[in-house]
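hey so i finally got around to running the thing on that chain from the lab meeting. sorry it took forever, my laptop kept dying and i had to restart like 3 times. anyway pasting the input first so we r on the same page abt which one it is
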Amino acid sequence: MKSSLITRLLATAAGLLLAVHGAAHAQSDWPNKPVRIIATFAPGGSSDLVARQLALHLSAKYGQQFVVENRVGAAGNIGVDHVAKSAPDGYTFALATSGPLANNKWLYNPMPFDAEKDLTPIALVGEIPLVIAVNPSVKASNLAEFVALSKSAPDGLSVANPGNGTIGHLATEALRIASGGKLRSIPYKGDSPAMTDAISGTVDAVSAPVTSLVPNIQANKLRALAVTSKNRFPALPNVPTAAEQGVAIEATVWSALVGPAGVPRAIVQSLNQEINKFTTSAEGKAKLGALGMVPLAATPAQLGEQMSTESARWKRVVDAAKITLQ
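ok and heres what got predicted. didnt touch it at all, straight out
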């Protein structure tokens, strides 16, 4: 009886060792087939192009193909939801923006996934700040003058944004709440129509990702008042941040690689280290900078914390401004 029990215990231990060895081998052998990176926006846009730069770099480093697949819709939710519901085996990831990773949960009801529970943070890639710019006829050269002018105007000032619930919209509401300015958010279907109406004077100002506005700012068709990042934007070095002007708002479109919950730690760490090397390298900075992105680097834990704190911050703005997507 005693001998039989010992035999069973030894067999169980051997099985466990084999399972652990098999799992470790599977992870050390990763990747042994193509890896998908889901781009959550349309081909040709900045998010898609950043995903393709990452895929090229990772394919070269791992000797296995990283393939970009576009799954678009619902401000990035559709692509990220696909990843959240995928097997956590290290072969499906998303290059996602701050919308589905932080902001959208307060704007979409129902939200198909919980970013903090259903995703594995892997690596922060970079950010694109917003810029607040006015038609040259608007008599304001900085945020203080812009806010003061809005308070004195009978109907306030109109500020175009790329769409209801976008970061351009949220940033305008954050500015209105922080400054007490009389600012009216006017949603458009994308950056271009919002910018076009600001240039024509149909609206007084525009709040949108800086990359879409840079050429017209440099051509003096728009006057940039502030960028909403911690640091000045390299392509517009003479435009101060909102914080430099005493307005405590920070709003950027940041991008990160995430996977489904439960991706093996060894794979997470390997990808994080490789992506951080890329975003901090001269080559990575040049390639991402050419796409209008300011490269960043962070640990998986730091990315997870950013997802949580950004979500809480924008919840306060959404609640205060009573923003809905209906």
